Amino acid sequence: MFTQTGLIDDTRGEMMITLYRTDHDDRIVYYSINDRQGHLFWAYTFAVNWGPALTAGREKVYAFESRRDMDRKLQELLQERIRDGYRVLYTYFRSHEYEHLRPALRKAAVS
Predict the structure, then answer these.
(1) C-alpha 103 chain-centroid distance
(2) Are residues 91 and 103 in contact, defined by beta-carbon separation less than 8 angstroms?
(3) What tens digit of pLDDT does each residue of 25-83 get?
(4) Distance CA 49, CA 99 (A)
């Protein structure tokens, strides 16, 4: 995100959550959520990638008018994936913006 001076605003948090599970054929399937890529028209966005490999598969970008709407969708997606049997493989949070996601992620953490 750029500031009014044209400089990059690096105060915005970055987040990456990678989940995984095995399908009925014992193949690993990944589901990754990140907000690293900004969007030209929306201030609040995140991307989701899923498939048999982290670098291949499908992608969907979600865009929102408010932080509250974005946070609500993140919670919803995580709850659905955890209910579907996904476990946490990796998480990265640059700041404390996503503290509200930690309880759900702890439940799905690999011990």
Answers:
(1) 15
(2) no
(3) 999 999 999 987 666 677 889 999 999 987 778 999 999 989 899 999 999 999 999 99
(4) 22
CA–centroid distance for 69 within its chain: 14
Superfamily for 15-102?
WGR domain (2.20.140.10)
Domain ranges in the chain are 15-102
Record the pTM: 0.78
One-letter identity of residue 111? S
Q: In DSSP terms, which residues pair with 63 in a beta bridge?
A: 45
- Give the DSSP per-residue string, 43-54: SEEEEEEEEEET
Instruction: Give the model's confidence band at 111: pLDDT under 50 very low, under 70 low, under 90 confident, else very high.
Output: low
Predicted local distance difference test score (pLDDT) of residue 79: 93
